[in-house]
Amino acid sequence: MKRTPGFFITGTDTEVGKTLVSGALIVKLRETGINTVGFKPVVAGTYLDHNGQSLNEDLETLRIASKLPADQVNHLCPYILDQPAAPHLSAKAKGIHLESDVILKAFHEISRNFDAVIVEGAGGFLVPLNQDENLGDIAQSMNLPVILVVGMRLGCINHALLSCEALKTRNLPIAGWVANTLANAMPLLHENIQTLKERIAAPYLGLIPSLPKDLGKASDMPYSLDALQFAAQHINTP
Ligand SMILES: Nc1ncnc2c1ncn2[C@@H]1O[C@H](COP(=O)(O)OP(=O)(O)OP(=O)(O)O)[C@@H](O)[C@H]1O
Ligand SMILES: C[C@H](N)[C@H](N)CCCCCC(=O)O
Ligand SMILES: [Mg+2]
Fold first, then answer.
1. Neighbours of ion ligand 3 (CB under 5 A)
2. What is the CA radius of gyration of the chain?
3. Is residue 33 part of a domain?
4. What percent of the chain has pLDDT over 90?
5. Which ligand is nearest to the CA of 79?
6. Does any ligand 1 atom lie closer than 6 A to the CB of residue 206?
C-alpha cells in the first residue's frame, strides 16, 4: 500500500454517510499496519450516555475505529458544540467564534502522533465555519486528497457534480468517490452510479450497501465496529 498522509472526507450533504466511510477507512488503513486516527474540525450535536456524559456520535465512531480510549476523544476535535445545527450558528448561539487556526493547530498536533489522519468534514463541502471561511478552506489548508461520499438518493447527481466543481475550483485532488446506499435503496441505483462514473473524473471506490438490520444504528448513536468493518469490505482504499 502507498504511504498516505490521510484523506479529507466530504459528502454531497449532511447525513450521507461520511462518518460511515471515515470509520471504514480508518479500519482499513489500520488493518494494513498504518497507524490511523480520525479527526473532525467541528461537531454539532451531543447526547448523554448512561453516565450522563456528553458525547458526539461522529467522534465516538472515529474514536472506536481509531482504537482510542474514551478519555482521548477531545484530541479528535477542537470544537464540540451541543446543538445539532449548522456549526457556525450553533457556535454563535454559545458566543463562540470558530477559528480555522484553532482547527489547524489541533489537526497538526494529532498528525504528529499518527501515520495518517482521516478528516471528516461537517455537512457538505462549503458549510460555513464563520463569516469569512468555510470547510472547503480547511480542506485546502490541510492539503489532503479528498474523498467524496455520495449519499445515493434522488438529487445526488447534481449535488455530486456541484461538489466536484467546488473541489476543482480549489485545485483539490479527488482521490476517489464512494456511493453509499442510505437506509432505503433508491430506484435505478446502478444507473445513477453509472451516470456519476461517466461524469466524475476520479476513481470510483465502491458501493456500500444498506447496513444489515443488526448493524444499523439509532439516529444519534455511534456506528459499531462491526458496521464499520462491513462498510470497509465494500470500498477500496485509493
Ligand atoms: N449504508 C447505510 N445503510 C443504512 N443506513 C445508513 C447507511 N449509511 C448511512 N446510514 C444512516 O444515515 C445516517 C447518516 O449517516 P452518517 O452519520 O454516516 O452521515 P454523515 O454524512 O456523517 O452526517 P453528518 O453530516 O451529520 O456528519 C445515519 O443515521 C445512518 O444510520
Ligand atoms: C448537525 C449536522 N449533523 C452536521 N454535523 C452539520 C450540518 C450542517 C449543514 C449546514 C447546511 O449546509 O445547511
Ligand atoms: Mg458524520
1. 18-19, 58
2. 17
3. yes
4. 94
5. 2
6. no
Per the domain annotation, does 237 fall within a domain?
no
Q: Whose CA is nearest to atom 1 of ligand 1?
A: 210
Cut 0.95: pTM above it: yes
- Which ligand 2 atom minimizes the distance to the CA of 124? 12
Grid coordinates belonging to 25: 477507512
151-179 pLDDT tens trace: 999 999 999 999 999 999 999 999 999 99
The interface pTM score, or ipTM, of the predicted complex is: 0.99
pLDDT mean over 100-104: 98
Please say if 168 is a catalytic residue.
no
Ligand 1: centre distance to CA 203 (Å):
22
Which amino acid type is present at position 218? A
Cα separation, 28 vs 227, in Å, equals 13
| Strands (E) located in 159-218 | 174-181, 204-208
Please give the tally of structural domains in the chain: 1
Q: Is residue 1 part of a domain?
A: no
Largest Cα–Cα distance of the chain, in whole Å?
50
Which of 171, 172, 181 lies closest to 209, judged by CA?
181
- Measured from the alpha carbon of residue 38, the closest ligand is 3
Whether residue 224 is contained in a domain is answered as yes
d(C-alpha 90, C-alpha 110), whole Å:
25
